[in-house]
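User: Hey, my collaborator sent me this sequence without any context and asked if I could get a structure. I don't really work with proteins. Can you help?
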Amino acid sequence: MLDWMASVGYSQLVATPHLMEPLNSVYAGVVNATFRQVAPLASQRGIVLHTGFEHMVAKNLPQRLATGEASTLAGSRAVLMEVPFIGWDYSADRVLYDLQSQGFRPILAHPERYIEALARPELVQALAERGVILQLTLAAIAGTYGSPVRDLARRLLVWSLETNLPFLLATDAHSTGRRLTDSLAGRKWIERNVGNGRQVLEWAGHGIPAALIEDQPLPSFDDWVRLNPPGNPPRPAARKGFLRSLNPLSRS
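Assistant: No problem. I've predicted the 3D structure and written it out in structure-token form, which is a compact way to encode the shape of the chain:
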């Protein structure tokens, strides 16, 4: 995976193993030991590797983080979380609100793949309007998970741009399989079909992540374009991080 990431230009990654319950010393020890093995391999390939976790939504998550559980992204205030794929956990709204109230910055992983969101995209739109960052999967944009997921991912991307809401683009890769390799096709679709596609990729794959892990204000897309005009490389952050034909989603 590191070889592939380096070959396509990634310079910084946050590894996010799943966390289904409070972080205990045994699991933390396994993760940290593995990180110490992998981080030097990443460095040899010119990649800075950070620790993190992908949380399953839990009512006690805000309290756990507030009392010092070290499970945010790169030690920042950014928190990656998911909800169950089937059904919709309405308690997640309260969890996200409590996280934000305590100064954390919640990120919702792969919103395009939740069964309930496919039927009612307004569920995730409402969260984005409240300041929750949507993390869209590049392979989903390419169609790896099928056309319904592909269409929702693309429409959420367009809707976010139309409403000036920040979002992330990520691989969500667990191996060297299609979720990783198809991310290139997702990037190409954005370049070819979204206005200022290359800058969208840089903003959502570099500018927003860099700001999140540095606990900095999130740049708007307009500001990103102004500071990084076409043809110029992105300006370095404190840590280097990483539409034409579609209509935005309507709210019902």
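In plain terms: The longest strand covers residues 78-82. You can pass these tokens on to your collaborator as they are.
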